[in-house]
Backbone:
């Protein structure tokens, strides 16, 4: 603070608190709706305080699912989301680490060509090549598989750049020393570079886990079999239930469940999350 | 750039690059090339014959009032989202930065919506604005406005803009806060000694110094609104009512998967590709100046 202006300080606090209230309100309303029986929601008097159906509603969605959405238990959808998010995050990190290592620590023909090929993927999000990518995955027989859900998304220019940037800051002496001591490239990578990259890997993992968990368009395309639905796209199936009004209390319980894992990751690993967010944007 | 000391190996670097390049070629470059090629084809309704028509699909596309409407919707949507989420985030960041006590706590309470999937954010607001059961629709009725995003295009657009902005505020907030904390205190103190009011200091010192952050966020937010908001639209309004919230990305999907118009959808993909490439170039040209490689 530069000068003491008590009124302005009070106003600042008030505005931020108001902002937080507006941000949190949707979650509160959702949580409240998820703890009431459907009649309380449909009769027009909107409850503002949690009801007594918390356990019943959550047990229903987790255990048996909503009939209109194919009756798939949300527990299964959460598992699918978890598998997808983890494979995407780990896959992206693994292939980007070794690709960046090759680009920074080796001199070989077509080095820059490879680099630019990876760079181009930045400009080709799924949304701009929906149909042909779907056709490739269908031809490879990967529809309705976990491989089809995650493999096409694991190429990552951002992660490769991040690791490249980081490797460039690693002192030359380390590689020199390793070479003098007779360590080969793979030993150097495993024993020196990987341990040094630990924080970067963790930060990136937080961002990529959220990215993978929140995928929507891709699972929508490649899963027609309900047992492969992920939770984020599963919600849509419930709200658009044909011929009947959505069962809002169950939809809202599912929405809460879909939000909790990534939100916990962000809140618990806040430092890493911020680091990852800032670095992936460089 | 490369290290001064490199390892020498004939095949190892290629082996290390193989997974990344294989995925890139199979799932990115090949489909993109396919989209380019298909955008110049016309297929009959039964998929029996295809004809190479050069740029006819594009001519049709730009003569199509529905496509132009989707284009306009996208522009309105993107800039509304960028404006709403950035101004809200800037206000909150400036205020949170002023409060010495509590900045960290406020940060924690404001950043988590980043983790909420766009589709989920859409459903949250869709529920609150629902004309039958939603609390906000109820409040609006109380003040005399009959909200119905199922029938009114303007309401539907407002709904998706709010949902998309809400999710993006936390991201903008983090970057604005970091930008504010990087401004040298001495500049602001000097202005305060010269008698500039907090309001004047903001507009003449802080805001201009934040302009790199603002510009960067503008690009990021437009990219987000163009491409990452498919889930919001699809999970809530599905482009309706009467195409009022049909944005480009949604139209590619619905024409391709529901309308099965292969050539038209591919032509739209190519237009989108051009837009992403343009935006990426803008982003990188700007960032090149900020970060020294």
Residues:
């Amino acid at each position: 603070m530069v000068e003491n202006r008590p009124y302005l300080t009070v106003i600042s606090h008030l505005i931020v608190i108001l902002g937080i209230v507006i941000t949190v309100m949707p979650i509160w309303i959702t949580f409240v709706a998820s703890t009431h029986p459907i009649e309380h929601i449909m009769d027009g008097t909107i409850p503002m305080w949690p009801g007594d159906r918390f356990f019943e509603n959550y047990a229903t969605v987790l255990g048996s699912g909503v009939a209109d959405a194919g009756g798939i238990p949300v527990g299964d959808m959460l598992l699918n989301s978890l598998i997808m998010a983890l494979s995407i995050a780990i896959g992206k990190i693994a292939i980007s680490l070794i690709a960046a290592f090759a680009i920074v620590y080796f001199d070989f023909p077509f080095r820059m060509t490879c680099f630019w090929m990876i760079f181009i993927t930045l400009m080709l999000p799924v949304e701009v090549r929906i149909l042909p990518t779907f056709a490739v995955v269908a031809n490879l027989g990967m529809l309705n598989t976990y491989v089809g859900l995650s493999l096409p998304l694991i190429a990552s220019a951002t992660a490769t750049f991040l690791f490249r940037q980081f490797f460039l800051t690693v002192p030359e002496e380390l590689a020199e020393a390793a070479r003098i001591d007779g360590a080969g490239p793979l030993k150097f990578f495993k024993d020196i570079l990987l341990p040094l990259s630990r924080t970067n890997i963790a930060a990136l993992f937080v961002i990529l886990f959220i990215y993978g968990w929140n995928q929507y368009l891709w699972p929508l395309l490649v899963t027609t079999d309900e047992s492969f639905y992920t939770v984020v796209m599963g919600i849509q199936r419930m709200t658009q239930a044909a011929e009947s009004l959505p069962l809002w209390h169950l939809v809202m319980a599912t929405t809460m469940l879909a939000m909790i894992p990534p939100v916990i990751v962000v809140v618990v690993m806040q430092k890493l999350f911020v680091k990852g967010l800032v670095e992936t944007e460089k | 750039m490369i290290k001064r000391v490199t390892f020498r190996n004939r095949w190892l670097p290629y082996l290390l690059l193989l997974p990344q390049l294989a995925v890139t070629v199979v799932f990115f470059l090949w489909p993109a090339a396919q989209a380019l090629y298909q955008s110049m084809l016309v297929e009959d309704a039964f998929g029996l014959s295809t004809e190479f028509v050069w740029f006819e699909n594009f001519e049709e596309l730009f003569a199509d009032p529905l496509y132009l409407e989707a284009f306009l919707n996208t522009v309105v949507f993107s800039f509304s989202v960028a404006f709403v989420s950035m101004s809200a985030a800037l206000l909150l960041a400036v205020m949170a930065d002023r409060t010495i006590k509590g900045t960290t706590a406020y940060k924690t309470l404001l950043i988590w919506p980043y983790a909420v999937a766009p589709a989920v954010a859409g459903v949250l607001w869709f529920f609150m604005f629902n004309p039958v059961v939603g609390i906000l629709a109820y409040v609006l009725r109380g003040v005399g406005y009959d909200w119905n995003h199922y029938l009114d295009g303007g309401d539907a657009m407002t709904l998706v803009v709010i949902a998309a902005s809400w999710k993006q505020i936390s991201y903008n907030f983090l970057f604005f806060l970091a930008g504010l904390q990087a401004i040298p205190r001495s500049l602001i103190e000097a202005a305060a000694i010269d008698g500039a009011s907090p309001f004047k200091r903001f507009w003449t010192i802080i805001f201009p110094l934040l302009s790199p952050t603002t510009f960067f966020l503008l690009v990021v937010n437009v990219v987000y609104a163009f491409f990452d908001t498919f889930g919001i639209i699809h999970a809530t309004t599905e482009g309706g009512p009467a195409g009022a919230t049909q944005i480009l990305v949604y139209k590619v999907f619905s024409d391709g998967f529901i309308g099965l118009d292969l050539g038209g959808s591919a032509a739209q993909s190519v237009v989108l590709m051009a837009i992403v490439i343009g935006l990426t170039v803008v982003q990188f040209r700007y960032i090149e100046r900020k970060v020294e490689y």
About this structure: Chain B touches chain A through 106 residues (CB under 8 Å). The mean pLDDT of chain B is 83.
